[in-house]
Amino acid sequence: MTFVMNPLLYPAVIKQGKQLDFHKFSDAAASTTFGFPAVNTGKFPGLSDKIQRSFQLLQGCALNSLTLKMTGNLQLVLKQDFLSSNVVGRECDWRQEDLYEFCERVMFEATFLTLYGRPPQTNMDVHTQFHRESWIDVLLDNFRRFDAMFPLLIARIPIVLLGRIKSIREQLIRFFHPHRMAEWTNPSEFIQARTELFNQYDTLKDLDKAAHHFGILWASVGNTVPACFWCLYHLLSSPKAFSVVQDEIMGMFGEKEPETMTREQLEKLIYLESAINESLRLSSVSMNIRVVQEDFCLRLNPHCSVCVRKGDIVTLYPQSTHLDPEIYPDPEQYQFDRFVENGKMKTEFYKGNQKVRYYHMPFGSGATMCPGRFFALNELKQFFCITLLMCDMQLTAGQQHATMEKSRAGLGIMPPANHISFRYRVKKCLQTQGL
């Protein structure tokens, strides 16, 4: 494995799309992790390209309808799970929660409803001898168990060696069985298109299709949930950041929850976007992997070439850029406005006297950038707009600072290693309206 650590050399690697490929590697890794047959085997001609094209439905004009749905679902989940009188008692009372679990529950359920629609309640709830569990509780619990083993699955540890994870993965896959999904109401255009695409291939079994849908669930929340945690934790830890971002949100939407929230409005929230970018800079510990397709000499600059062999792996490690003091002064410090300059988003960063093209890479780089990045950034903005408008929030005093769980290094956004508690209550202006 060859690591390229100098960000000024990244463009030379990223532009080598044919000789340095990511898709075959990701296809093999996703196949073993989520339990569907590899796409690039010749058994499913054209499927890989069609899957890539389907991601366009998470961008551009299609993002408008997703934004509208996500707004409603975030408000719904917050009200029914956290802000109703059945949960908090008197509306003026403070309620204490684990910060990560709060972010996880809200983002997991709201994202699921936005992408997949709503299953029929009566058919999906799980009845045990003692009580009835909501389908979303069962799904989230199984997802947590699977996600805990995700680093080992990506490392190609056989799933039969991982205890009950094979059984849990089977339950997760069966949740997305086509016969079940056919009964779900209001799925996104993206999921509908993927369903229609999979139905074009007779060689894809029903459980193969279900496994693909399960893989998208993980892709949509596996990194978004920890990203949400760090963004909210940093805002609550910095009174100035919280005040500036909250004022910006209220200046856009007023002091009560908005009935609608457009992509254009979200794009104007530059301090919120900067705060999110800064949290992603500090918490993203991913690797950008490329597999060498043929023996060749990789020319990094006019004075440096590296000869690599077919099958070798060339890796970019963006955290070395994110923590480079030449690019980001005081790189380990959270500065919510680091990405704002002269009232606009700052897009030029330098190492020495040279402009750094790839200075912020939480979503990857080049043709292999996360295709759902626009949706992910949008839903993070929506989460903060809605929670900050609906809730008063404070970190619990006297607890340790949050630290990162290093066991997932190289795989994306690190979750916290320790529990962080906070308290919240319904904003006074909302109490008079009634939730």
Brief descriptors of the model:
single chain, 435 residues, alpha+beta, Cytochrome p450, three-stranded antiparallel beta sheet, 20 helices, globular, Cytochrome P450 7A1 isoform X2, CYP450_sterol_14alpha_dmase, oxidoreductase activity, acting on paired donors, with incorporation or reduction of molecular oxygen, steroid metabolism, sterol metabolism
Short synopsis of the structure:
It is built from 20 helices and 17 strands. The chain has 435 residues and is α+β, with helices and mostly antiparallel strands.
Protein architecture, described:
This protein is an alpha+beta fold and 435 residues long. The protein is built from 20 helices and 17 strands. A hairpin with a 2-residue loop joins strand 11 and strand 12. Residues 127-132 have low confidence and may be disordered. Helix 3 (47-54) runs antiparallel to helix 12, helix 4 (62-83) crosses helix 6 (99-116) and helix 6 (99-116) packs across helix 14. Helix content is 48%, strand content 13%. The chain is globular and about 65 Å long. The longest helix has 22 residues, at 62-83. It has one domain: Cytochrome P450 (Cytochrome p450). The strands form seven sheets. A four-stranded mixed beta sheet has the order 1-10-7-2.
